[in-house]
Design brief:
Blueprint lengths: L1 H23 L6 H4 L71 H6 L23 E4 L4 E4 L6 E2 L7 E4 L11 E6 L8 H12 L8 E10 L2 E10 L2 E10 L7 E8 L7 H9 L1 E2 L2
Length: about 280
């Protein structure tokens, strides 16, 4: 009996030790329930958008499976409206100030300028006058213009290449001048069109509200000549331009203008228009 009790005591002690170990040691995870650890899928299986992974590269060339929509965007059942930028842009308007507006040719800008009327075929010619025997030579343009007698006198040419002027008149803002220079505008295929653009350019040397009325238009040797009236406010000037090929890289321009305060010299305009010559 003593051995029996001793065996029971030993079994009870062993059972107590095992129970204590079970209580102290942590339980092992259930691997079947947890399953293997795998990487997340490249795209969510649902049709909704998912937040991007913080490890995704901003330089990735792979397009997303579906475009992400912000919280304020809702899917549309019909075709989407075109973006506002698809509307055609308004065409620019040629500037009447003499500058060439983007998208327009020089002649289109001329025709859109209200200061310059259309040159009709009804504009007359003027009889050519003797230019006299004295000339001012301009080596840069290859042209020569009449040297006008007093009260005309030579003057500092800049920004032109030659210049003659009338004395200033008290109370008048403008005075007569005759200048030459290389063509300051775009040369056109037709000398007539080039002369029209040159006449428009000369408005830069008249008061701001100046407008042109054509008086004469005719071809000259190796060029074209225009005579016109310039009206500004209550005053007028008579003017002329001659475009002529003097054998240089660009044609030459001769421009003369005389205000009504010096109308006695209006007769010199015809002399200048008739007297432009090619050097040589």
């Amino acid at each position: 009996m003593r051995d029996v009790y001793r065996g029971l005591a030993m079994a009870t002690a062993v059972a107590a030790v095992v129970a204590a170990l079970v209580m102290v040691l942590p339980s092992e995870p259930d691997e079947v329930a947890a399953g293997p650890v795998t990487a997340p899928p490249a795209a969510p299986p649902s049709s909704g958008s998912a937040p991007s992974s913080p490890l995704s590269s901003p330089l990735s060339s792979e397009p997303s499976a579906e475009p992400s929509a912000g919280p304020s965007q809702e899917p549309s059942s019909g075709p989407s409206d075109p973006p506002a930028s698809a509307a055609p842009a308004q065409q620019p308007t040629p500037s009447p100030s003499g500058s060439l507006a983007p998208g327009y040719t020089a002649m289109e800008a001329l025709y859109a300028d209200p200061r310059v009327p259309k040159l009709s075929r009804g504009v007359k010619r003027i009889p050519l006058r003797s230019p006299g025997k004295r000339f001012v030579k301009d080596a840069r343009t290859g042209l020569a213009v009449p040297r006008l007698s007093g009260p005309w006198k030579p003057h500092g040419a800049a920004p032109f290449t030659t210049k003659q002027v009338l004395p200033r008149t008290r109370g008048a803002d403008v005075r007569g001048m005759l200048v030459t220079c290389p063509l300051p505008i775009l040369e056109q295929k037709s000398p007539r069109d080039t002369a029209l653009l040159a006449a428009r350019w000369t408005l830069n040397h008249h008061p701001d509200d100046a407008r042109i009325t054509w008086l004469a238009s005719q071809p000259v040797k190796r060029g074209w000549m225009l005579v016109y009236r310039v009206t500004y406010g209550k005053h007028t000037s008579r003017a002329a331009v001659v475009i002529m090929d003097g054998g240089m890289s660009k044609p030459g321009l001769a421009f003369v203008t005389v205000p009504d305060s010096q109308r006695k010299q209006w007769r010199d305009i015809g002399r200048v228009a008739s007297g432009v010559r090619v050097l040589g």
